[in-house]
Amino acid sequence: MASVTLSGLRKEYGDLTAVDGLDLDVDDGELLCLLGPSGCGKSTTLRMLGGLETPTDGDVHIGDEPVTDQPPYERNTSMVFQSWALFPRKSVIENVAFGLKMDGVSEDERRERAREMLDVVEMGEFVDHDPTDLSGGQKQRVALARSLAIEPDVLLLDEPLSNLDKRLREQMQLELRNIHDAVETTFVHVTHDQNEAFTLADSIAIMHDGDIEQIGAPREVYDDPVSLFIEEFLGDTNLVDATVAEVTETGVIADTAFDTEVDVRTGDAAVAQGDGLSVSFRPEELDVERVEGTDGDGASAVTGEITDVLYRGSTVRFYVDLGGEHLFFEQSVGADTAFSAGDVVRVSWDPDDLLAFAADGARVGRGET
Ligand code: ADP
Fold first, then answer.
1. Could you give a GO molecular-function term held by this entry (predicted)?
2. Once rounded to an integer, what is the mean pLDDT over residues 205-209?
3. CATH classification of the domain holding 288
4. For a Cys-Cys bond, which of 35, 106, 178, 239 suits 197, CB 3.0-4.6 Å?
5. Same domain, residue pair 202 and 318
6. What does pTM read for this prediction?
């Protein structure tokens, strides 16, 4: 077990900057997810941590030890890849014990440690099987046991579940979390899947264009995103254009595209009259009820008509026309209050749940009552 520190880490490939001066601290025993869209530099960061890629600049420390110039085999890290790459002509237990053999561990001890790790990943009954007979999920568990058997200080996981189908992937996410809790090793896990990061992580570091844009506990980054990029990346939302009509003592009053004013507490953000904002109304934070008429709307409610109903598996998405602007909200399939196209509904929200972003994507504030 060990902490990890990346300082000013940079990787250039010709003119392309894949990782752009990234700083990151991972605590000893933490499970950290590097999350971001494809191409943002997650794998390159992980590979520099493991010594598979040489940084153009910056430093890697594992524990207190500077390892930037060390080759992979001198760092006590172990990597799990998307493709499990098991040896086909060796049994499951021989696969798991392989790294220990390379380390010169005696045969009896190798078998014992490999067996222990296979138990941790719940593959204890498959020790003598040929890996080619196993399912994808089972192979990935064996690969995980193989990487853990050498007792790495840090386990590096590069999209290890993305070859699995959805059901198995979700099951393995929970199991991976349990395995982490059992072995207490530091895990750095790369994924582009928000749900996977939310399920697994103690902390999520969200990457954008080669750098970390925000880091925090899953709930923290979801509830308190620092930018529009993060707000949109972490979940579908309604972004409504607004214009600052008035600057007040605590913030601004903005006119939204559906003719409702929102008050935004802006703190230190510099916002001027006439500035354009994007206001995010998360679908799960909208309250919707069927109504007869359009009277009685206030500052935190609007009335409109359901125009479209979209079935999305376990949820149904409803679009509401608010005089040309649309908002969507979702309900679980089978919910008591399912709506139909043509229904007139009143949509309301708690102003505190609204987030406002400036034209450059920086968050300028939160709504206030
Ligand atoms: P991610 O893991 O977030 O999908 P990567 O770290 O794989 O992103 O890649 C970041 C950027 O660096 C991408 O634009 C990718 O095309 C580029 N890149 C990665 N590896 C190489 C390489 N060996 N040579 C040239 N460009 C690379």
1. ATP binding
2. 98
3. 2.40.50.100
4. 35
5. no
6. 0.92
